[in-house]
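Project channel, design review

CF: Before we commit to the Variovorax ginsengisoli constructs, I'd like one complete example in the thread so the newer folks can see what an input/output pair looks like. Taking MarR family transcriptional regulator.
RD: sounds good, go ahead.
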Amino acid sequence: MPSTSLSADELLKLDNQLCFAVYSASLAMTRLYKPLLDKLGLTYPQYLVLLVLWERDGLTVSELGERLSLDSGTLTPLLKRLEASGLVARIRDTADERRVHVSLTAAGRRLKARAAEVPGCLMAASQCSVAELVSLTQQVQALRDRIKKAA
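CF: and here is what came back for MarR family transcriptional regulator:
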């Protein structure tokens, strides 16, 4: 562990824990998004799946799982609910039936326009500029990648 000017007692205080700051910020963001996502008929994890598909449609379930850091046991029920609501279609690969591609339906593509207001609510609530949010996002992503590499 790198040396620090904080005592052992200070290091163990909740307010000095980066993990808690990230966790509680995530909870706050999810609460902020909830009313907007409710209007769209989505849960937060379903919204994340759609964000990925709006970037690149037709991914396999494993590619989606890799992009979202979710295992298939978590992702499959999510995809089934999105399919039941008419937003995605799951199609088995004809060359390899173990592979399932996930594609947006017309309704799923149309929902993108309605979802466009969701990211702006974070900017308004955070009172950060676009540049600040971009920088913070990049810092958190770099931290995530270093932690994943170390784990």
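RD: helpful, thanks. The chain has a mean pLDDT of 94.
CF: The longest helix spans residues 18-40.
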